[in-house]
Amino acid sequence: MTRTVKRRKVKKKSILILLFFLALIIFTVFYVFNFHITNIYIIDNNIFTDQEIIDMAKLSKYPRTFNNNELIIKSRLEKNELIKKVSVNKKNFFREVYITIEENTPLFIYHNKTILKDGKEVDKLYSVPTLINDINDQKIYNKLLNKINDIDLTIKERISEIKYDPNKADKERFLIYMNDGNYVYITLRKINRINNYVEIISAFENKKGILYLDSGEYFEVFGGKHE
Q1: What is the total count of domains within the chain?
Q2: Are 110 and 53 in contact (CB under 8 A)?
């Protein structure tokens, strides 16, 4: 009889321990499931503010993290035509959300459409330069889409119009009209040179003219000589 009682005591003890750990697991899962997002970090956004990204992701009220997993947040943001790709990571027991944005930047207006970074055309006209004439060579057009991303944002904001203006020496030559009244000749192979525009022009004491960056680096004052 003594042995039988001991076996029953052992079984009851094991069951109690099992129930305790089961209850602990259920409590932990329930507790964690009800965690709310506490911090949101937005990375690599230029077109949209942090708050705009948070609003689009439907996270402005810092909701429960498990109701807003990475795939849900990603799908909400990638519905916007100006967002090309989104990466979402969670840390600190899923309460901190890190959202990295790859924007589908508006590049220029062409045939009354805005051309985005991925080549897509949209009807909405954004505040970007206008490509004022046709580029019949598809390879050159595609290269323009790629190379225009080498221009710094601060310089892009100074450009009003772009004209495809090839010559015998270079089929990839463009004439860029700046908002300040100056013109810039550039070739796609050397397009990053325009990022030095402000520094170059500042040396000419507010004179207006043509900056040649396609075949050198010199400035021709309107009505004057090369400098």
Answers
A1: 2
A2: no
